[in-house]
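Format notes (please read before filing issues)

Several people have asked whether sequences and C-alpha cells are stored in separate files. They are not. Every record keeps both together, in the order shown below: the sequence lines, then the C-alpha cell lines. Line labels are part of the format and must not be stripped during preprocessing.
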Amino acid sequence: MKRCLLTIDNAFEDTALIDRLYHLVNDQGQEVETTNPLTSVSDLEEKNHYPEIENIKRSLTKDLWFNVLGDLTVGRERFFKSFEIWTHCMADAESVFLDNSKYGSLSYHVDHDEGFYKRTKNFSLPMYGSLTYIGPKEGINGGELYINTEGLSHVTKYIDKNGEPVDKLFDFESGNWEKINFKYNRVIVFDPTFPHLVAPVLRHPHNKRRVSLAINAWDSTELDKA
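Then the structure lines:
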C-alpha cells in the first residue's frame, strides 16, 4: 500500500458506533483523545472501567484495521504495534468568525513524530494514515480534504526548522493535489508521506459540525517526547 490513496464509501456496514461517536463529540462535546497518544494493539478490547467514548474508539479502530481494511493490509498487520487516534471537529466559517474559534480548517501538515523531528530533523512516520467521516450525514459545504501525492519532497519545501507547516496559499489545480469531499461513512487511507490539509467548512447544518476520526497505524508503541 505504499504510495496509495484509497477511498472507501459506506465503509462500516453497521454505523451504530460511528453515529454514537458523532453524538458524543458533536452534541456533548466529549473528546476522543487520551493522555497517552498511542493505543496499543493489545488494548483494543472494550473494558468496563473505560469511559464509553474510549471503548467506541477502540472498537472502531479494531474493526477498521482488522476487518474493513483487512484484505488490503494482509501480511502487514503483524507489524501493527499501536494506533494514534483522535477526532477533528470543524465549525463553519461564519461560526469561526463569531466565536473566534480555531476550528475552521486544518492547516497543511504531515502526520509524524514531532519530538523525533525536533531532535533529529528526520521524519518518523506511521505505517498508514486514515480518516473516517462520521458526521453529519449530509449538508456539509466545503471542508474538502486535499492530499499531495508528491510526498516528503513536497513537505520539505513548506515546513520550518521545527517541522511546523508554513502558511501558504496552494494552487490546488496543479502540483499533484487530490481533492476528496466530505461524505458520511467514507474512509480514506493514505501513504503517511503524503502531506494534507482541510479546507474551511463554508456551511453545515445547524448544530451539526463536520467531525472526522483519524486513526494512524504505527509499528512503534511510543512517540519521542524530546
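For reference, the curators noted about this record: Residues 52-68 form the longest helix (17 residues). The mean pLDDT is 88.
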